[in-house]
């Protein structure tokens, strides 16, 4: 679209003059009444734009009229009714006409000047418009830039928010973990208290039952005794009464008989004679004494029987009071039993309420355990599936004065990384890792950092932990130090955790294999172990077999040790390291020239939820990473070094390929070394890998230290693809 202002045609002064000449009629031409009218006020010059316009319109019509007059059209004059006047007035008219023509020409000049000015203004307007356009364009560009910058700012703000959320999630997770542990401890102590309370209650119950039984038995016995005695007493009483009655009867009868006889005799004697009276008296005295003796004897019998009766009555009384006491006791006991029964019912109710509460708590704990597993995995993934930790071993006494210039920065909480700077020949080398342990950090400090990774293997993920570095840099100390190395600490941690998880229904089957890879040959470090180890025949060669369907690896002919108790750990590890050192003496420090791989398989089953988990934890002490030493050109050493270099570079290649963006489509060279082939399924997918790069502080080891750090830094720059 053309936005230009239509331009007024401009003319040069000569053109304007020429035009005016051609347009303006001759001064001799007949004057039109209109021009005459104007002559009456010759000094009235147009000053405004409207007057200017009206002058132009006035001058246009006379132009045609004048032209007609110039061409000798007298009818025009006649038509106008103008009469011929004298030559004086004609010259006057000519002057006037000329004056008007001049004014008109001046006006036309003014008009053209104004037109020219208008054009200039139009040009300026155009220029301004263009400038405005350019300015608008610039404004647009600035706006776009501003938009882009605001988008970038938004992204940065989002990133910052994400980091803050991440931090919050981490904090929440830690807090939750602590709470979880607290709850578990609380639940455990409550369970323990309940168990003890139950035990005591059961014991009290048993004691109470046995005591009641004893008392009941005693009461029964006493009842029997009482009834026996009652029976005896009533029996004796009737016997005594019968005897007494008989005695009295007999006595009465004998008395009556004797009296009757005596009376008869007396009567006979009285009747017979007085002489017999003396005899009668003596006879009577004799009879009296006889009767008295008999009576006394009978009396004594009676008294004896009365006494025994009294005794029996007293005994009966005592037994009765004892019986009453026993009854009282029994009543007290039954009252106690009723109270105990009420208490038992209360306790039963309390126990059933506690059991249901415990069930709920268990359910919550199980859910929290599942949540913890998920969160732990998310946290590990946030930290990266491949992580690299550096560890600087402490200087020995001999190295004290010959140490490298190594400086370790503080841990950067924002980036989650740590840096170290090494000076060599006035050049500074900086390396960044996920964590750096200095000379003063202990194996415990190291284990505290990797505990959650070990947890992942219990949760059913595959985990690989490598120790990499030159000979003497502290790999074996980090991995296998008997007291607190990663391997013994890991096994102890596993046992502790398995014990904790028992209350949530989890049970674990823990088994281990320990092998060595020397010159690309596998060797069983648990071979020949006794006890609960699965033996393999001496001639059997170790073989690696993969099951692609279940993504698992099987080591054919390798001894598998089932860890049934924590006590087995030190025994198995000391035997394995003995086996390794036996080989070392044979093959000249072979331990530093071979890779050792400790494979722990953790199969978990939850009887309450039916969940299964299978995790493999590979703890690898890699062979020394130093380059070929020209001072040791023996063929055997060369072969060893070549094999080590090949397998280490293959490990680097595999990790690198796994970290590539197109890793899923890419060929991963697992088969290029026995080590990577063995660990194939523990390096892909959800697996987690941690590499320790162990370095020495010694100045003489500096070139190897830098090599190791470069290798590790390359691994650290990798982020595993899923
Ligand atoms: N963090 C540490 N604290 C104390 N001593 C250590 C530490 N790291 C290593 N050492 C000591 O340094 C020496 C060498 O360590 P170590 O044998 O573990 O090295 P290495 O890298 O495994 O060597 P090789 O490859 O020969 O097995 C040992 O005497 C060990 O006790």
From TrEMBL:
SMART domains: KISc. Signal peptide: none annotated. Residues 1-70 are annotated as: Disordered. Residues 1-13 have a biased composition (Polar residues). InterPro entries: Kinesin-like_fam (IPR027640), Kinesin_motor_CS (IPR019821), Kinesin_motor_dom (IPR001752), Kinesin_motor_dom_sf (IPR036961), P-loop_NTPase (IPR027417). SUPFAM superfamilies: P-loop containing nucleoside triphosphate hydrolases (SSF52540). Keywords: ATP-binding, Coiled coil, Microtubule, Motor protein, Nucleotide-binding. The keyword rRNA-binding does not apply. GO terms for molecular function: ATP binding; ATP hydrolysis activity; microtubule binding; minus-end-directed microtubule motor activity. Residues 385-718 form the Kinesin motor domain. The keyword Lipid metabolism does not apply. Transmembrane segments: none annotated. Residues 104-329, 358-385 form a coiled coil. One of its GO terms (cellular component) is mitotic spindle pole body. ATP binds at residues 469-476. PROSITE patterns: KINESIN_MOTOR_1, KINESIN_MOTOR_2. One of its GO terms (biological process) is mitotic sister chromatid cohesion. CDD domains: KISc_C_terminal. Belongs to the TRAFAC class myosin-kinesin ATPase superfamily. Kinesin family. This is Kinesin-like protein. It comes from Lachancea lanzarotensis.
